[in-house]
Structure formats: C-alpha cells, structure tokens
Amino acid sequence: MPKNTKVTQREHSNEPVTESVADLLSLEHPMDYKNSQMSMGLSPGSTAPVKALIPSPDPDAEDGRPAWNNKLEYILAQVGFSVGLGNVWRFPYLCQKNGGGAYLVPYFILLILIGIPLFFLELAVGQRIRRGSIGVWNYVYPQLGGIGVSSLMVCGFVGLYYNVIIGWSIFYFFQSFQYPLPWAECPIQINGSQAIVVPECDKSSATTYFWYRQTLNITSSIDDTGGLNWKMVLSLLVAWILVCLAVIKGIQSSGKVMYFSSLFPYLVLFCFLVRGLMLKGAVDGIAHMFTPKLEKMLEPQVWREAATQVFFALGLGFGGVIAFSSYNKRENNCHFDAALVSVINFVTSILATLVVFAVLGFKANIMNEKCVVDNAEKIIGFLNTGVLSKELIPPHINFSHLSTEDYAEMYGVIKTVKEDIFDQLGLDSCLLEDELNKAVQGTGLAFIAFTEAMTHFPASPFWSVMFFFMLINLGLGSMIGTMTGITTPILDAFKIRKEILCVACCVIAFLLGLLFVQRSGNYFVTMFDDYSAGLPLTVVVFLENISVAWIYGTDRFMQDLEDMLGFRPYSFYYYMWKYVSPAILVLLIIATVIEMAISPAGYNAWVEAEGAEQFHSYPPWALAMAYSLIVVAMLPLPIVFLLRHYNLISDGSNKLSVSYRKGMMKEISNLEEQDEQRFILGKNPSEAPSPMPAPRPYLGPGGTQEMTNTNYGTSTKTGYQNIGSPESEL
Fold first, then answer.
1. Residues 112-156 pLDDT 10s
2. 523-562 CB burial, b ≥16 within 10 A, e <16
3. What pairs with residue 196 in β-bridges?
4. Which of 66, 238, 515, 551 is 20 to 30 Å from the Cα of 221, by its Cα?
C-alpha cells in the first residue's frame, strides 16, 4: 500500500489524517516513469522498449469511454465498414478477370493466411488498449506512433473521394423516380427540319451518354477543369450532411444508423438475386462466372490481386476497425468477432457476384439478340443488292424469327464461302461469350452496365431506386467507419466536443471535395483511388504486424490475449503473425512497387467526338500530385520515428491520463475503505485477504523473468502501480 494513505498513517502515528487519497493524487506531480525504478526493476534512467498490453485492473466504466449498447450494434458496425462498394463492383470484376471460380481458391487461402489473423490483431489491440489508431500504436511502441497518423491521413484521402461516389449514387437515386428512366434512350436534338439522335450518344449508348454528359458533364482531359458541376456539388453536400448526421453523436448515433445501413443492402441483394434468376440469360452469366480457368491460378498477378482485395475488403490499416473495437468491453470475444465478420464479408462478396453476373448474363443476352437483329438486317441488304447470293442462306432460316443458333450457322457459311470479301462486309460473330467477357468494374459497372440492364427490367424505376439506395447505404456504412477512424484518435488526444469535431471535419471535407465535383473531377477520383491508399496502407499494416509480433513480442501478445479472452488463441495465429503474414505483406509491397513502376501512369479520358474512352498519360503536374499522395500519407512514419528516437517530442508516457487517474483513485479508495473497516474491527489489515485480484506478474522482454518493484527497498509485484496502462500513453 502507498505510504501516504490514511490507513498507513494511522498505523504509525496518532496524528489525525485530514487528506484523502484523491486529494493527494490530484496534488501529486506527474510521475516520470522513464526515470523511475518502480514496477520495472530497471536502473534509473533506463527505458523499456515497449509496454505491457495488459495493465492493472481498470474497469471499463471508470475510464469514461463510450460503449456499444449491445453486441449486435458492434457487429453491424464492423460489417458495415468492411462490406462496401468494393464487394459489389470490385470483387465480381476480379473474379471474372482472374479465372472465374478458380479465383476463389487463392482468395480464400489468402483470407485465411493474412485476412483473418490481421483483422483479429487490429480488433485485439483496439479492444485491449481502448484507444484510436494513434493512441494504440503510441502505446505499443512510441517510435512507431506514426502508424496511427498515417492511418488517419489515408482515411482522410479516401473519405474525400469515397463520399463523392455516394453523391453520384444520390443523384441517380433521385433521377430514378421517373418513367421511363432518363438513361433508357438517347436524347433527340432538332437539326433544322430533322430530328436526330445526339451524335455523342449515338456513338456510345444511352447509359454511357447519361453518365459522362448528363451526370459528370466531363471534360476531355484532366488539364481542363471545366469549372464546378453544380448538380454534383449539391449531391456531395447532401452526402456529407448524411455522414455528419450519422457520426455526430459518435457510436450512439452511428450504432443506430448501422441497423439499417448494414442490413438493408442484404435485403436488396436477395431481391435482385431472386429477380435476376428469373431473367433470361441469368444462368448463362452465373455459369460463365463460376466456370474455373485453372491455369490462371499459376499466374502471380492473380495472387497479388487476391491479396490486395482481401486486404482492402476487411478495411485493414484504416483505423476504423481499431476505433470500433476500442468501444468494446475488454473481455469481449474479439477472436469470434474476427472470424464472423471475415466470413460475412466473404459470403457477401459471393452473393454480390451472383447478383452481378445474373444481371449481366441477362444484359449479355439482350445485347446478343440486338447484335443478331442488326447483322441480319445487313445480310438482307447484301442479298437485295446482290453482294450475297440467296443460295448461301440455309432454307430453314426465317429472318423474321432468327435465333442466335440460326445466325451462327448462317455467319459460318458466309465466312467460309466469301472469305475473300468477308472482312469488307462488316459482320459480327454475335457470340454470347464475347459479351460475357466484357469485364467492367467500378463506376463502369454501377453507373453504366448495371443501369443499362435495369432499363430492360419490368418496373425498372423500382429496381433502379432499390439499387442506388443500396449503394448509398453500402457507402454510408464504410464512411461511418472511415470518419470514426479519423475522429476517435483526435478525441482521444484532445479535449473537444465530438459534435464540434464532426461538423468541422465534414465542412472541411466538403470544401476539399469540391476538387472532385469539377467537370474533370472523375479523373481526380481515379487518381486518388489508384495512389492514395494502396501502397501506404500496405506499409501501415506491415508495420502494425511487426510492432506487435516482433517488437512487443508474439509470446507476450498471446499471453495478453489469454488474460483478456479467458482462453489462449490457436497456435495458428502465432505463426501467422510472426512469420507468414509479414512475409506475404513484404511480397505484396514489392509487387505493388513493381506494378507502379512498369504500368504507365494515366487515366481514361472521355473523348466526346468519338463517344469513347481513350487512355491519356498524366501531365507532369498531375503525376507529381499523384506521387505526393503516397509521400504525404507515409511521411508521418519516418518523422515520428526520428523525433522520438532523438527525444525531440514526448511519447506521452511520463504522465497518467485523467481517466486512468480516476480509475487508480477509485481502486485505492476502495482498498482504504475495506482496510479501515478491518482496522476498526481490530484486525491487522495485512492478515486479511486483499480485495484486489492477484495481478499477473509483468514479464520482461524475454517473457521469462518477473519484473519487481524495488523502489521502496522491498520486492513487490506490480499491482495498480503497473506503468503498463494504456491511458498512460495518451
């Protein structure tokens, strides 16, 4: 017991004691643990490289930190953050591009090897230390505190352009309340006495024209900003208002929003799946999707893209996972949570893939039938002009009811007989396989291919409203996690009202987001998507893995997990954290750098005169901007390391936080009250059992030697004086 308590003074002196422990602690100067021998058994002036993740007992309720109302809210928040737009428009594209069903094999293997272990790691450190990304990594190893700052920077970059996509979805959502849908047909313009189709639309398609001209009103290059697109400015404003309202009260407000934003997309996906399976050609699309091309599994590119998708699908490195888990009770079974959320994420990707390819299979059949009709008209024209002989047409073929099989037979005969002039005829093969192989992703899938397919649905406005409302909710769930990853570390470090911080963040983000709602804004969205997150986040997660597994120590971390969860996690995690995951992340970093070096840096510009996209290289200023995104996101890592290595900034370990001090005072006060009761009853306090739970001895870096307190000339195990408090770092 501390020497200056009421009880110890009463035992050694008859003088009255008027000061309380709370008074003494409030007047006491912050203890400099770096120069103290207490709890660590170290000589004065020496420092410990890392702290214990298991501090002395500190009830969750005493640190004043908000908590989830129930476990379901927390799970829905993690699911809403991890399941986003990428599950709907990125995973199906990668699946189609990289071997169909064969792609699921490397994806699932890498989900087991790096996805679940690293997701579990982030959940565990957030739940144990109960701080945001900056506080967590300052605590684990202060010299790598830049990890949290880099996470916050990446969250900021991603949030800026991600909410623009939600704004686009909001615009399409409101445009869907009309029949026919505005992108169903090309607009007509009057040219003198004639009404003609707009040339740009005629050269592309109705949905493509609506996206590039009516929605984005896009310029032909990134150099031409074109001014603000006021329709998109208003949509972006609405998107930021929605996000601000969802996060303004912290998890108290975002937790309620998650009940709808996380569950509604599944309702829509199931409705689309049922409706899609009833469409003609849906089975063709799904069969094409899951037909495995096993030879693709031998290509390194497939494994690299699978690793990247696993990495981003779970939201690793963003800080949102850590922030959400920091509001959990310390005894929560985060091991189960990691497996559950990872499986839900994987199943959602499969479900979205089924929906996408059922609808795209239907679209492919529609386009294939249109191709047959158009080319049949060409053949009839050639027959009427005598270019082709009627003897070339099989007698059973009826042009008024021409099937794809009949056209394929007729096409084959003409190609064989008229081989010398066949290329001049301009006939297409009209193969369904060719339509299904047209891979689309991202905005091309959501705002062009999918919208075009929905125009052929019965009651198309209803399905369009449902689809874009689903995209809004998917994006909102991810944005809530992203904003929490930004606000939680700031709230942990500074005394500021969360409402003021959230409003300030949203206003600043809206103003910065005006970059993306210029007429050339789509090109900047592509730039930020390609450069702001990929490499920086991979480096961040690699350093997270190294700081826990190698600097703090995997053995100690496993022991901490056993103390926290009540059971020891499988040894599988030990080997993944220590060897396998770091090795895979190193390979992924190297592959990403090589890919960036060999791939031309550029974007697909829309050429109005041609009605098509054309690849353009970035001009020097845009290329400098793209690479500066990587540099700015990763710059906190070396800066914080050097500043703390040379003791130019404090790591925050020289004083206790207010919340932890409150917890200490309450524990000591409880101890005093019980000892005083025993003293009044005539018992020696030392003979009575201690009301405090017996603490686990703190182990040194090697994990074997027990560290003791030698400050007062006696050897006592660490209790509530253990410096390994997470709050002591903040």
1. 999 999 999 999 998 888 888 888 888 888 888 889 899 999 989
2. bbbbbbbbbbbbbbbbbbbbbbbbbbbeebbbebbbbbbe
3. 189
4. 238
| CA atoms of 504 and 510, how far apart (whole Å) | 10
Helix (H) or strand (E) holding 270: helix 264-277
- For residues 69 and 255, is the Cβ–Cβ distance under 8 A? yes
Helices 264-277 and 334-385, packing angle to 10 deg: 40
CA distance 320 to 508: 20
Length of the chain: 730
Q: Are 504 and 144 in contact (CB under 8 A)?
A: no
Q: How far apart are CA 687 and CA 648, in angstroms?
A: 49
Q: Which of 347-356, 504-513, 604-613, 623-632 has the lowest mean pLDDT?
A: 604-613
> What pLDDT does residue 34 have?
39
80 marked as binding residue = yes
Task: Look at residue 421 and tell me whether its pLDDT is greater than 90.
Answer: no
Which tokens sit at 269?
Answer: 């996906």
Average pLDDT in the 562-573 region?
A: 89
Q: Is 522 annotated as a binding residue?
A: no
Identify each DSSP E strand in 524-668 by its residue range.
602-607, 612-617
* C-alpha to C-alpha distance for 617 and 221, rounded to whole angstroms: 10
Residue pair 10/680 in contact (Cβ under 8 Å)? The answer is no
The SS3 assignment for 207 reads helix
What residues contact residue 581 under an 8 Å CB cut-off, 6+ apart? Answer: 113, 114, 117, 118, 545, 549
Q: In the 8-state DSSP scheme, what is residue 282?
A: H
CB 58 within 8 A of CB 240: no
Tell me what pLDDT residue 171 has.
93
| CA neighbours closer than 13 Å in the CB half-sphere of residue 361 | 25
Number of H helices, E strands in the chain: 33, 4
What lies within 8 Å, CB to CB, of 640 at 6+ separation is 143, 144, 145, 146, 149, 649
Tokens of 551: 């600097």
Total Cβ atoms within 10 A of residue 689 = 6
pLDDT at 60 over 60: no
Q: Is 281 annotated as a binding residue?
A: no
Instruction: Please name the helix (run of DSSP H) or strand (run of DSSP E) that holds residue 21, with its range, or none.
Output: helix 21-27
Whether the pTM exceeds 0.85: the reply is no
Q: Is 229 annotated as a binding residue?
A: no
Q: 136 a known binding residue?
A: no
pLDDT (tens digit, 9 = 90+) per residue, 646-683?
888 776 544 334 443 444 444 445 545 555 554 445 44
Do 622 and 527 touch, CB atoms closer than 8 A?
yes
Q: How many CB atoms lie within 10 A of CB 609?
A: 9
Q: Which amino acid is at 50?
A: V
Phi, psi torsion values for 496, nearest 5 degrees:
-150, 145
Question: What number of other Cβ atoms are within 10 A of residue 221's Cβ?
Answer: 18
- Cα–Cα distance measured from residue 138 to residue 150, given in angstroms and rounded to the nearest whole number: 12
- Residue among 34, 59, 60, 37 at smallest CA distance from 47: 34
Give residue 684's pLDDT.
Answer: 45
Nearest CA-CA partner of 562 in 75, 54, 71: 54
Question: Are the C-beta atoms of residues 613 and 604 closer than 8 Å to each other?
Answer: yes
Contacts of 694 by beta carbon, 8 Å cutoff, 6+ apart = none
On the question of pLDDT at 710 being above 50, the answer is no
| Among 80, 36, 158, 38, residue whose Cα is nearest residue 707 | 38
What are the residues whose beta carbons fall under 8 Å from the beta carbon of 646, sequence distance 6 or more? Answer: none
Q: Average pLDDT for residues 63-67, to the nearest whole number? A: 71
> Three-state SS for 716?
strand
Q: What is the pLDDT of residue 683?
A: 44
Q: Is 87 labelled a binding residue? A: yes
